[in-house]
Amino acid sequence: MAEEKAPAKKKDDKKVKRPSAKKRDLQNERQCLRNRSYRAKVATAIRGFQTAITEKQAAEAVQSKLNTIFSLMDKGVKKGVYKPQKAARTKSRLSART
Mapped to the 3 state alphabet, what secondary structure does the chain carry? Predict the structure, then answer.
């Protein structure tokens, strides 16, 4: 008389998500898209700053691009897109290039 094993669960037998979990998934998806577009905006500003340095544009133009990046990074920290230390590190490295 061998012991009988319970049938193995299939991978398709997932638990039903509660409405609050579904809502949270939707919120996370929206926030992820928002954060991604914000990070792209910052990356574009950084690229513009780097090209301004390599093309040796006027100091005022370079400084205004740097100020724009600083503003975007600070707003990103406030919104939770960036952690405070990442923003500080990025700003420090960019200001050292001027």
Answer: CCCCCCCCCCCCCCCCCCHHHHHHHHHHHHHHHHHHHHHHHHHHHHHHHHHHHHCCCCHHHHHHHHHHHHHHHHHHHHHCCCCHHHHHHHHHHHHHCC
90, 73 in Cβ contact below 8 A? Answer: yes
The number of beta carbons lying within 10 Å of the beta carbon of residue 88 is 14
Residue pair 84/77 in contact by the 8 Å Cβ criterion = yes
Q: What is the pTM of this model?
A: 0.75
Residue 27 CB-density burial (10 A; 0-12 exposed, 13-18 middle, 19+ buried):
exposed
Q: Give the tens place of pLDDT for each residue, 18-74.
A: 999 999 999 999 999 999 999 999 999 999 999 999 998 899 999 999 999 999 999
CA distance 96 to 2: 74
Q: Which amino acid is at 86?
A: K
